[in-house]
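Researcher: Can you fold this with glutamine in place?
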Amino acid sequence: MSRQTIEAAVSAAEKLNDTLNAFLEIDRKAANRADGTSGPLSGVPIAIKDNLCVVGMQTSCGSRILGDYHPPYNATVTQRLIDAGAIIIGKTNCDEFAMGSSNENSAFGPVKNPWDTTRVSGGSSGGSAAAVAAGIVPVALGSDTGGSVRQPTSLCGVLGLKPTYGRNSRYGLVAFASSLDQVGVSSREVADMGRVLGVIAGRDTHDQTCADVPVPDYVATLSEDIKGLRLGLPSALFGKGLDDEVAKSVKEAVEVYRELGAEIVEVDLPNAGYAIAVYYIIATAEASSNLARFDGVRYGFRAEDAPELRQMYRKTREEGFGPEVKRRIMLGTYVLSAGYYEAYYRKAQQVRTLIKNDFLNAFKSCDAIITPTAPTPAFRLGEKVDDPLAMYLNDIYTVTANLAGVPGLSVPCGLSSERLPIGLQLLGPNWSEPTLLRLAHQYLQVRPFNERPPVSATYLDSLTEK
Ligand code: GLN
C-alpha cells in the first residue's frame, strides 16, 4: 500500500513538473524506502524545500552558487520525519535563498500556480505549496522568514503554518535571516499539519534558539469547540491596497467564526505600518552576514579563470548569485555600515520591539487575530518582477509574525471571481499553535475548501482513465 502511495506521488511529481516546475529534484527510487517503515508518519510522501538538508539529495536553495551541493547531514526536521517513517520524495523549488514573494527569483525558473499556470505560485516556498495544492504530496516543508510558507499556500489554496520562533529546529535549514527564519508546514488537511508539526517540533541540542517547550498533541484538541474564544479583528489593516474580493472573503470568515461562537473584538496594531520597512532592513542585514559564507571555497560553485583569491571571491559571487540576492546583500551591508547602523539597523530593531509589544497588548484582549494572508490573489508571472517595492508589499500581512516571533497560519477561505484561491491568516501568542489549528479545523468543518486546481494529480488520473 505504502509503496504504491510513494510511486503515485513520484509519478505525479514527474508528470506535473514540466507544467509546474515545483520540484528541483525528484527521488525516483523513493518507493524502495517505503517497505517496512514504521512510526506516526509511516509511508507518508513528503516534499522538502530545497533549503533544508536531506542526505542523498541536493540542497541548492534555488541558487547557482550552491551548484550541486549535497549536504553530509540531515536537517533536524528532516531526520525527525524520516525517523517517523515519512518518505521524502523530492526537493522543491524556491526563490533563491528564500528571498521573494512570487518564486520568480529561483535560478531554475519560476513555479507556476496549479490554479492558473500563467500566474505565480507565491514565494518563497512556492514549490512546496504547489506540490501540495496539486495533490502530489499531502504535506511539504518550507521555511518562513517573512511569510514564505503562508503567502504561497494562500495563493495556492492550501494550509500554511509558520510556527512560533523556536518551535522547530533550524539546524540544517540554510540561513537567510536567523532571527526570523522558522521551518513551516504546508498541507491540505489540518490534522496532517498537526501530525507533522508534532513530529518535527521540539528541543534540539544542535540549535540553541530551539526552545525547550513541551510538544503537545496537536491533533487531540482539534475538535474542541471554539465557543467563547476571542478573535481580534484589526480593522485598520483592511484598508488601502487590499483587494476587494480578498477583504470580502476574510470578512465573511469573521462572520463564520461569530456563528461558531467566537467573540469578535476590535484590536489595534498601531505599528504594523512600519513592518515592511523594518523587515526589509533586518532581513537584509542578517542575510548580508549569513551569505558571506558563499565564497567559492566552502561550498558548490567556484568561478573559473580567477587565479587570484579576491578575484575568485568576487567572480564567484557575481556569477553565483542572482539579482535579488545581490540587491539584498548590498542593502544589508549598507544598513549595517558605520554611520548608517544607528539610522537604519538600530532604529529598525527598536521598532521591531514596538511591533512585538503591539502583539503582546493585542493578545491581552483576544486569543488570536484574523487578517488576510496576502493582499491579492495570485498575480501574473512577470507582473511585479521589475518593481521590487511592489513585490515587497505582498508581505504586508505576514512579516509582523516573524518580527514578533508569534505563530501564523494561513487557511483557504474562498475563490476569487477568476477562480484563484484566497487565504485568511490567524495569528496567535507564542506556543498557541493548538488554538490556531483548532480555529482552522473548526472553520473548515463548516466552510470546507474542497475545490481542486485544474492542474493536479487527480487531473492526471482522469487522463489515464480515459
Ligand atoms: N517575501 C519575503 C522576502 O522576500 C519573505 C521571504 C521568506 O519568508 N523567506 O523576504
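Model: Folded with glutamine in place. The first strand starts at residue 23 and ends at 26.
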